[in-house]
Specification:
Layout lengths: L1 H37 L10 H12 L4 H12 L8 E8 L5 E8 L2 H14 L3 E3 L8 E10 L5 H11 L1 E7 L2 E7 L3 H10 L6 E8 L7 H16 L3 E6 L4
Helix pairs in contact: 1-2, 1-3
């Protein structure tokens, strides 16, 4: 019986892991489909930078090659009206933090209703377009490991190639660029021999907010619930970490 119980536990853990992977792969596929659509049907990553970023992110999550190729083919079928689209919601959360929710949907009414429901239950409110976007900058973010260059040397190089800002974290550097310069800066850094851990377009908060312990807990739980939504690709907030 003990062996059976152990098997059941392992089986349950595997099913949970597979379900989580499936959800991640679905989101990655959505990003790839939208990148092809927004790129006018361009399926060559060398010519479609958004697609290249989406593919790189999918590969980093160990998404199978056939899944990636299938998503690219689906993207070609979504050109024109209808199909999967990118949509951005703005909301206010616990402690009056600003939240940006990026989603992929083929049914705006369904996704809006789900996002609104999660916000309502988590102490948040859906806001009008432009209500909180001024609290964020739409930028390119490149993450590289420490150890290859000093902060000062890297900053000097970024000033030469069009970087906007540099932040030092635990074991890594975060490089920020204008959204339109992400491709150029990334390519230069790669030619410099630097390892790129990730590169993507993000909504970076201009100023982070400190909340009470209770508000912080509620805000984090709300963000987690939003991120678990099948249609939601990414959630950004100005909650201080």
């Amino acid at each position: 019986m003990s062996g059976h119980s152990k098997w059941s536990k392992v089986k349950h853990q595997k099913e949970s892991t597979d379900a989580a992977k499936g959800k991640i792969f679905t989101k990655m596929a959505g990003s790839i489909i939208i990148a092809v659509k927004e790129g006018g049907g361009m399926t060559d990553p060398a010519s479609n930078f958004r697609l290249r970023l989406a593919i790189e992110k999918a590969r980093s999550a160990n998404m199978p090659k056939e899944n990636i190729e299938r998503a690219i083919e689906k993207g070609k079928g979504h050109i024109g009206e209808g199909g999967l689209e990118r949509v951005v919601y703005e909301a206010i959360g616990p402690g009056k933090i600003g939240i940006i929710i990026e989603a992929a949907t083929d049914n705006h009414q369904r996704t809006t209703a789900e996002v609104k429901n999660i916000l309502d239950r988590g102490g948040g409110v859906l806001a009008a377009q432009g209500a909180f976007s001024y609290l964020f900058k739409y930028l390119g973010e490149i993450i590289i490991p420490k150890g290859t260059k000093s902060f000062d040397d890297l900053m000097s190089r970024l000033l030469e190639i069009g970087g906007e800002d540099l932040e030092e974290g635990e074991g890594k550097y975060k490089i920020y660029t204008l959204a339109g310069d992400l491709h150029k800066v990334k390519e230069v850094l790669e030619k410099d021999g630097l390892q790129i851990l990730s590169a993507e377009l993000i909504y970076k908060p201009i100023l982070n907010m400190n909340l009470t312990e209770e508000e912080n807990k509620k805000a984090r739980e709300l963000i987690r619930k939003l991120e678990e939504s099948a249609d939601v690709l990414k959630v950004y907030s100005n909650l201080s970490l």
